[in-house]
Amino acid sequence: MRATVDFAPLFRSSIGFDRMLNALDLANRIPTVDNWPPYDILKTGEDDYRIDMAVAGLAENDLTITQERNTLVVTGRKAPEPQDAIEYLHRGIAGREFECRFALAEHMKVTDARFENGLLSITLRREIPEALKPRRIAITSSTTPAGQVVPQIEAQKEAA
């Protein structure tokens, strides 16, 4: 059984956090789903992440990866095998269909996807646009002598 959390007090007392609170509220309402296929989420750098999914029994052509705004969707659908081709005495490799959804933070982009030895690796990177990065603003005085060049606003190259 899953405990429910009431976010109403946070909505009443916080400003500008509505998207985060809506995401938490939505995550709380999502029913628990099957944990197949198993996956790992790794942080490989300051703004770099990787999702590794064990998709044994599926081929590269059976997998689809799509990014729709802030959602990453990984889908697996195995092509049907002819009925009379093989008779299974025991079938232990799960080749069933699946759909995994991952909520992504803003400015997250998929940079690479590789399939090797039954492991799907999806590389993601947070790419903050230059316009949204912190920038240093030069302060000038009203007593700057005439003819002296006033420094312009410089964009800071380092991310916050």
From TrEMBL:
CDD domains: ACD_IbpA-B_like. Gene3D superfamilies: 2.60.40.790. PROSITE patterns: SHSP (PS01031). It comes from the Bacteria. Residues 30-142 form the SHSP domain. The keyword Transferase does not apply. Keywords: Stress response. Belongs to the small heat shock protein (HSP20) family. This is Molecular chaperone IbpA. It comes from Acetobacter lovaniensis.
